[in-house]
Each structure stands twice: as structure tokens, then as C-alpha cells.
Write a structure and sequence with these properties.
With 785 residues, this protein is mainly beta. The model is unreliable at 1-7, 17-50, 598-603, 638-647, 668-701 and 780-785 (pLDDT under 50). Strands 32, 34, 37, 38 and 39 form a five-stranded mixed sheet that branches. Strands 1-7-6-3 form a four-stranded mixed sheet. A hairpin with a 7-residue loop joins strand 37 and strand 38 (573-585).
């Protein structure tokens, strides 16, 4: 009869329990041959029990308390006078004792993996006096192990790597399983290992758990990862043992076991001849099944006719060979190139040299395509010279360019005017001869850098550029002059032969041997009695006094003409005037004042005092001007001026027009021009006492006589009205002119009509309506009477 796992465990528990019960008399306290005795003065109690350990089986699953053992003393006569007590680990909670019989039971299920043994103390007491009849003794209850824990891989799952192509038996990784059962008791904790998944590629050592390769020449390129399942079983792998599993992922790491190989034996690429240098012509790649450093390659041009024209480098990211241009291509010179390219691994494993050479060769053919190129100059830079005295039309030099294409199209020349803004030069469109277009001046521009354009006649879009540097040669065309503006002074107490100024000259020209200037006084100044000139022969001259003492009252300024000649061919000269001021000097010869007016001022009046006086005078003038300006601004004009006072506008309204939106019915300028010229001005500040005014004369058009007379009558009434305030403006609209069909539209005539409307409320509207209230109201006739 074959037992299952659970039945087998129960069977082992029953056997263990039987063994414990059969050895119980060894676990009891047995009577000894000696008895306790008493001695006077000193009492010695001899132990009367023999102690052995107790054993109890773990994982007891019964419903009744588990019997552990029995305590018994030879003092106990069986009459109930002795009671037993238990103390220590688990006493009362896990272990209980029958105080009459001394039987010990376990009330809870015990687990050896939680606690392997318990230490307790037992004692027999007199039930009446509760005093110990035996000394307290300590004993141990050990938990006996059963196989109730399976092996476990605490570090799983595992990952490991092993190089591909490794020999059989190469160690990959070690796995370890632990069993919580007692390793000192039986085979519950004795583990063996086996492989459930991963054969036939790998194997495992049963006792150590070391995983090893089981097949040779495992190729990463074929399969690079394997999943293993490892089992650990206790009871030395026997039936009924418990087991645990874990997974191990094994990755084959790469080795350089694959040489590089080009997919094709030859390649062909077409490139235009206009491709600039350093441009990429082609990208080729040799295939290598390896990865990482084992797939790194280097490329080189092993042979071919383009060694100096092309170069190849490797792209570190893609491991491609990049072919680039080192020199310009020319279809007319060579139409194709052939290159032999070699690719080789950088790192070779000597173990796999037998697999063949770790390099490969391929052929690359590069076809150069013709393109329409711009004209090319015979020189990249032309250097020309011309004298600045050259006449217009003088030939300076010639440039030449040609079409490099097979068609050899004619070339036409021109100057890029952005480089010759002043148009100093011209070029013959057909011959390339450069001539002077205007006068040249070296002092303005010594070198002209111009760009000459050459374009194909058949295709003007193809333009070549040539560069020309034209140097202007110097001629002696500038006369020498003073190097600076000299401020020369001479003291009144100067002695004869005293140096008062050292002068030098400059010349804009640039002679090859440098400048040489000659100084002298002009003929009319050569015999003057005041100053003389000494040429120092080093392009400088010295001005000296000729007489003793100068007086500012007699002459404060002297003008000395100096004649300067250069060494050019032909030589040029100029006359420069040196201004010399006579000054009052201190004891050290330093000029103090140099104007003649200062000499006649009082001796006690200093320059600071003069400045203070002038400042006071200016301040007074400014105050006076401010006062006058303020008075003029406050004063209003008394004479009425039509051109300035525009508040009295007489506007004609006898043209009915077409309404507000009709802007073409009448001329606005005519409304403001009455064609009237008054000969006299009318005072606006007329007092009420003035009753007689001279009637002004008019010059007007005869057709407007009636209208004019009417208007001036109203103006006269307004001027002499004592109730009218100054500068009041009166505009009359009551007259419509002769022959008006509509007659008067104004309400101003209503004062003389029989209308019984009352306008007294106008006086309540404020000062602005006082005038209307006086005209139409029933109140007083005059507001100012």
C-alpha cells in the first residue's frame, strides 16, 4: 500500500508519539535508595529524584492536550499531601501540570522553527504548609522536528551570463536553497538540486547547486538567452520530501567569432564635379553579427587611383565607412575613380582565428558627372600698380578667365561695382583690360581692391570671380605745411636771439627716401628787424627774436611768413604764416596776458573783478528785459484792428443754400470778405460821454451800398451804446437785404412787434443772458445807468 504525502507525515507523528510514551518511565522522577535525614545544628537534604529531558513532537494536530511527561517525588505517598507547581518559559500558557499527579501536558501546537526548546522549573510543595518538600529543579522540554518546511531559494530568481562558444562544464552560477527544518535530526533539511527545464544545454550539481554548460559551441547569434527551472528537494530527494523551485535566466555574452563581410563585392556611386571638399560621397558597411566592441571596425583604402582624392573614416555609431572628398573633382581631368576598400575588426580573439580572416575587401567605383561650371581665372589674385598721375584711359593691367567645360564658352568681363563705388576703373568686356576711369589720388586711397566678374556668354548665370589689388604709386603733388597750428608768444622783455618757437612740417606725399624740408623766411620778411628763422636741417626750424624788447601798446601781434620747400621732383613749396603775440610775462618767462586792452586797465583791477562787473551788468539787463516784457503782455491794444480781432464777423445769410450738407452752394471765403476797406481805426474803449464820432470812409463795390450802410449803422450804435461793455461782440441778423422773399427770419425784431410773449424769465438764467433780458424784458432799459 502506497502512502501519500499527508498520510506519511501522520504515520511519522504516531511513531514518534509511541516512542515518547514508551520511554516515559525514564522521564519520571524515580525513588532513590536514600531518604532525607536531619542532623543537629546543620540539616542536609539529599535530592530524592533523578532528572531526564522531556521530548515533545511539533505540529501536534490532536484535540486533546499533548502528554509531555510526569513529575513524581518519593515524598509523595499518594495521599494528596503533595502538590506540584511549574514555572519558566511557557508555564501555564503552553505547558500545564496536574498538581496532584505531576503530569505535564502541552495545550498549544508547537513549532520547532519558532522555538526549539523551553526551559522550565518544577517544585513539590506541602499542600498544608505550602512549603517545598524538595529543592526546585530545572528541566528542558525539547521540540522534536518533523519535515514540515520545504526548501526555499531566498536569492531567486537568478540572472547570469556565460560567454558563447564556452566548453562543456563551464560554471555559470550557483543557486542555494535553505530548509528551516532541523539539520541535525533526520533528513528533513538535507537538500539535493535538479534541473527541471533547460536541458540539454545546462546541468546542475545535485549537492552544490552549481549550474554548468552541458553543450559545446552554443552560438549567441543563434539563441542568446535561456530560461532554466531548478528544483531543491529535502529528504535527500526521496519520495515524500518537500521541494521548492526557482528560475535562472542565462544570457550568452558575445565573443568575436564572426568576421566582417561586405554584402556586395562592388559598389558604384555618381557624384557631380561641383561637390565641395569634405562632402560625403558614399557610405558603405561590412556586416558583422557580433555586437559591441566585437563589431567595431576600421576601414581603409587599400588600393586604387583615388588615394589622394578621397579618404574613408568610420562612423562610431553605425560602424559605417564614410567616403569623403579631399580635393576638388574635375570632370574634364578625370571622369571616374576606382577604390579598393578593406574592412577589419579592431579586436580579434585568437581562439577563433581558425574561422577565417577577420577582414574583407570590396571595390568602390566613383563616376564624376559633368556640370556647367563658372569661368575660372588664371590667377586667384592679380596685383597691379598705377601712378596717381595716370590719365583717364590709362591701361593698368589685364585679367584672363576661361570656361573649364568642354564647350569652352566665350567669357565677358565686368567689375563688381560694390567694390568700386566711385567707379575709378573700367574693364573691357571682351579682353579683360582694366583702365583708369577717373583721376586717382594716393592720399585718398593707396590701394584699391576690386572684384572682376567673368560670365559665360551662353549662360550668364555662371559667374566666376577674380580679385585685383591695384596699388597707387605716389607723385609729389602735395606741398608741405605746418605740422600743427602754432600758438606763439613773445615776452615784452625778450632779449635778442631768444628762441620763441620750434616748428616742423608735414607732407601728405610718401617719397621712397622719406621727407626733407627746407625752411626760410619769405623775401619780404627776410629783412624784418623783429624775428629771424634758423633751419635746423632735421625737418625743423627755430624762430628767434632779433631785437631787444616789445611793447603791446605799439603792436600786439606779429605775422611772420615762413617759406617751406620739400625734396620732391619737382619740388613743391608753400608759405605758412606764423602768428606771434606779444605778452606780459612773469619772472620765469611765462606769459600772463597777451591782449593790448589789458595793458591800459588800472593796475588794481584784476580779471576776476572785471568778470564780476560784467556779470552784474548782464543780470541788470535781463531784469529790465523781463519787466518790459511783462508790461507789454499786460497791456492790451486800444485800437480796433480787423486783422487781429476776429471776434466780430459779419456773415451774409441772404444765400439760402441747400442745407447743412450742401458745401457747394456758396463760397465760404466770400462770407468772410465784405470787400470793405476802412480808412480809420475805431476805438473800442469808447466812453458814454463821446457822442460824436467821425463817420469813416469806405471803398466798396456799389452793389453793396445799402447793405454796407445798414451794417455800419449797427456798428455805430454798438460803439456809442453806454450799456455795451468793452470788447463786446454784436452780430446783427435782422436785415435780409432788398428783394428777399422770405423777409427777416430773425427773432430780434420781435421787440418791436405786437407779440404778447413775456421774456422776463431770461433775467433768471444768469449773467450770460443779461443782454437778452435787457432787450426783451420789461425791466430797466439800462443795466449800467
Amino acid at each position: 500500500m502506497k502512502l501519500g504525502k499527508v498520510e506519511f507525515c501522520h504515520f511519522l507523528q504516531i511513531i514518534a508519539l509511541f516512542l515518547c510514551l514508551s520511554g516515559m518511565n525514564q522521564a519520571e522522577f524515580s525513588r532513590s535508595g536514600s531518604k532525607p535525614y536531619f542532623q543537629s545544628g546543620r540539616t542536609r537534604t539529599k535530592r530524592s529524584w533523578v532528572w531526564n529531558q522531556f521530548f515533545v513532537l511539533e505540529e501536534y494536530m490532536g484535540t486533546d492536550p499533548l502528554y509531555v511527561g510526569k513529575l513524581h517525588s518519593d515524598v509523595d505517598k499518594g495521599d494528596g499531601s503533595i502538590k506540584y507547581i511549574l514555572s519558566g518559559e511557557g508555564a501555564s500558557s503552553i505547558f500545564i501540570i496536574d498538581e496532584n499527579t505531576g503530569d505535564i501536558h502541552a495545550t498549544k501546537r508547537l513549532d520547532r522553527e519558532e522555538q526549539a526548546y523551553y526551559t522550565l522549573r518544577a517544585q513539590a510543595l506541602d499542600r498544608l504548609t505550602n512549603k517545598p518538600v524538595e529543592p526546585e529543579s530545572e528541566f528542558v522540554i525539547k521540540i522534536q522536528d518533523i519535515n514540515d518546511n520545504e526548501p526555499k531559494f531566498l536569492d531567486g530568481p537568478y540572472t547570469a551570463g556565460v560567454p558563447e562558444m564556452s566548453p562543456v562544464g563551464t560554471s555559470v552560477v550557483q543557486v542555494t536553497a535553505t530548509d528551516a527544518d532541523d539539520p541535525t535530526y533526520g533528513n528533513s533539511a538535507r537538500v539535493v538540486y535538479s534541473i527541471l527545464q533547460g536541458q540539454p544545454y545546462f546541468s546542475v550539481e545535485p549537492k552544490t547547486g552549481v549550474i554548468k554548460t552541458a553543450l559545446p559551441n552554443m552560438d549567441r547569434e543563434a539563441k542568446d538567452q535561456y530560461l532554466l527551472v531548478i528544483q531543491a528537494k529535502d529528504m535527500v530527494g526521496q519520495n515524500g520530501g518537500l521541494s521548492g523551485t526557482t528560475s535562472v535566466t542565462v544570457t550568452l555574452t558575445d565573443v568575436n567569432d564572426n568576421p566582417p563581410r561586405f554584402p556586395r563585392r562592388s559598389y558604384q556611386y555618381n557624384v557631380p564635379e561641383s561637390l565641395p571638399m569634405a562632402s560625403v560621397v558614399a557610405r558603405i558597411k561590412a556586416a558583422d553579427a557580433d555586437v559591441g566592441p566585437n563589431a567595431e571596425m576600421e576601414y581603409k583604402i587599400a588600393d586604387g587611383d583615388g588615394l589622394g582624392i578621397f579618404k574613408i573614416s568610420v562612423d562610431k555609431d553605425t560602424q559605417e565607412g564614410i567616403i569623403t572628398i579631399q580635393k576638388e573633382l574635375d570632370f574634364e581631368a578625370k571622369t571616374s575613380y576606382t577604390l579598393r576598400i578593406e574592412a577589419a575588426n579592431m579586436y580579434v580573439d585568437p581562439r577563433f582565428l581558425s574561422l577565417g580572416p577577420f577582414s574583407d575587401m570590396t571595390t568602390v567605383k566613383i563616376i564624376v558627372e559633368d556640370v556647367d561650371e563658372p569661368p575660372v581665372f588664371s590667377s586667384r589674385l592679380y596685383s597691379m600698380v598705377v601712378s596717381e598721375a595716370a590719365k583717364v584711359g590709362t591701361i593698368i593691367g589685364t585679367v584672363a578667365a576661361h570656361d573649364p567645360d568642354a564647350s569652352n564658352s566665350p567669357v565677358r568681363y565686368s567689375i563688381d561695382r560694390n567694390t568700386d563705388l566711385e567707379r575709378y576703373f573700367n574693364i573691357d568686356a571682351n579682353s579683360g583690360v582694366i583702365t583708369a576711369a577717373k583721376s586717382l589720388d594716393r592720399e585718398t586711397n593707396a590701394v584699391h581692391n576690386i572684384t572682376v566678374l567673368a560670365m559665360e556668354s551662353q549662360n550668364p548665370a555662371q559667374i566666376g570671380r577674380g580679385y585685383v589689388a591695384i596699388t597707387i604709386l605716389d607723385i609729389n603733388d602735395n606741398a608741405p605745411e605746418f605740422a600743427m597750428e602754432y600758438e606763439t608768444t613773445v615776452c615784452e622783455n625778450a632779449q635778442p636771439g631768444q628762441v620763441i618757437q620750434k616748428i616742423s612740417a608735414i607732407d601728405k606725399d610718401d617719397p621712397p627716401n622719406g621727407h626733407q624740408f627746407y625752411f626760410s623766411l619769405t623775401a619780404e620778411a627776410a629783412n624784418n628787424h623783429n624775428f629771424t628763422l634758423q633751419d635746423n636741417k632735421d625737418n625743423t626750424a627755430t624762430v628767434l627774436t632779433r631785437r631787444n624788447g616789445f611793447r603791446r601798446q605799439e603792436q600786439s601781434v606779429f605775422y611772420l611768413p615762413i617759406f617751406i620747400v620739400d625734396s620732391g621732383s619737382p619740388s613743391l613749396s608753400s608759405t605758412n604764416t606764423l602768428t606771434i603775440r606779444v605778452c606780459d610775462c612773469d619772472a620765469d618767462g611765462i606769459a600772463q596776458t597777451c591782449n593790448a586792452e589789458a595793458y591800459i586797465l588800472p593796475a588794481g583791477l584784476s580779471t576776476g573783478a572785471l568778470i564780476a562787473i560784467l556779470a552784474c551788468v548782464l543780470t541788470l539787463l535781463v531784469l529790465v528785459l523781463l519787466i518790459v516784457t511783462m508790461r507789454r503782455r499786460k497791456k492790451e491794444p486800444l485800437i480796433f484792428d480787423e486783422e487781429r480781432d476776429i471776434r466780430e464777423n459779419i456773415v451774409r445769410y441772404d444765400d439760402e443754400g441747400g442745407g447743412e450738407e450742401d458745401t457747394e452752394a456758396f463760397d465760404m471765403a466770400a462770407l468772410r470778405n465784405l470787400n470793405i476797406i476802412r480808412d480809420t481805426k475805431t476805438r473800442r474803449d469808447v466812453t458814454p460821454e463821446i457822442q460824436f464820432l467821425s463817420r469813416p470812409t469806405f471803398k466798396s463795390i456799389p452793389d453793396n451800398v445799402i447793405f454796407r450802410e445798414f451794417i455800419w449803422e449797427r456798428l455805430k450804435e454798438a460803439d456809442v451804446d453806454p450799456c455795451a461793455p468793452p470788447y463786446d461782440s454784436l452780430q446783427t441778423y435782422a436785415f435780409e437785404g432788398n428783394g428777399s422773399v422770405a423777409e427777416s427770419l430773425s427773432s430780434l425784431d420781435s421787440i418791436s412787434s405786437n407779440s404778447d410773449q413775456n421774456y422776463d424769465y431770461l433775467s433768471d438764467w444768469g449773467p450770460r443772458f443779461k443782454r437778452l433780458a435787457d432787450m426783451y424784458g420789461t425791466g430797466p432799459d439800462c443795466l449800467y445807468s
